[in-house]
Amino acid sequence: MLHSGQFKYNCKGSKQENVLKLAVECATRFQLHDLVEKLKLFKFENRTLVLRDPSDLFPPSDPLSPSSDIPCFDRHCCQELCDVAISSCDGALIKAHKCVLAGRLEYFQHMLSGGWIEAGGSTPLQLPMPGSVLHEVINFLYTNSTSKPVSYDSVEYWANLLVVADQLFIERLKQCCELGLTYSLSLKNAVELFGFAVTYNAPQLKKVVMSFIVLNMCSFIESRSLEGLSDSLMKELIEFYKTKMDIAHRVITPCSSALRESMEDKVMEIARNHPNPWKGNSPCPWHVQYTLSIFE
């Protein structure tokens, strides 16, 4: 019943009961205050529940910043109920709850709930990633946020985390990493981040980096930083430059006094009749004749 569309209530008989009013009374009787507040966002019209204002039920928010109203899990809570251990490539061991990992990520859902060997084994799960990155990934699955703010200036931190997020298909974590890398963007690492964004399919980072390069094209040409790009990346950057930069241009046309095609034969004839350059003080007679013929 609680959704952003419309819910048809098919009541039998001629009498149309206000189901919304009945639901509010029932929720009030059982002291379900949160449900009462949600029900007040709807109205009952023509045997239909209609949402008064969709923005009330789904307020606009930044998808990359966690909201304090959204509950999250605490990995350090109920340690005695941890039923899975994950080991990194450098030997770091992290304990977690299978229900949280399987519910938050499809990769762990298939691993822990399917027919994989890891599902029934008692040994820790081995994941090919450093302990620091594994710690961030597990914490993100619990809290839906990163331990570092997006303004944290560390290319290595965000790049390593983005690689793992791309491998495990954690889209929101990948978006956070892309945003974090944009805060570390500079003239020194822009070309490198451009290739990195293409390699690991980071479209938002790629667009920001290309815009940064285009706006600072003079500096990149002067430092010859773009020479390290491959032909495909250079072609893509050129096409982006053409579409994003407003370039003033005009069609080059000959001036009014330029030679016309009909005069070429006359010029060649004058050149044959006067092969030697004119050395006198007075104007050259064939030059005067040619000049007068132009303005005839």
TrEMBL record:
One Pfam family here: BTB
Highest taxon above the source species: Eukaryota
Keywords: Kinase, Transferase
Gene3D superfamilies given in the database record: 1.25.40.420, Potassium Channel Kv1.1, Chain A (3.30.710.10)
GO molecular function ontology, one term from the record: kinase activity
PROSITE patterns: BTB (PS50097)
Domain spans labelled BTB: 82-150
Signal peptide: none
Family matches, as InterPro entries: BTB/POZ_dom, SKP1/BTB/POZ_sf
Protein name: Inhibitor of Bruton tyrosine kinase
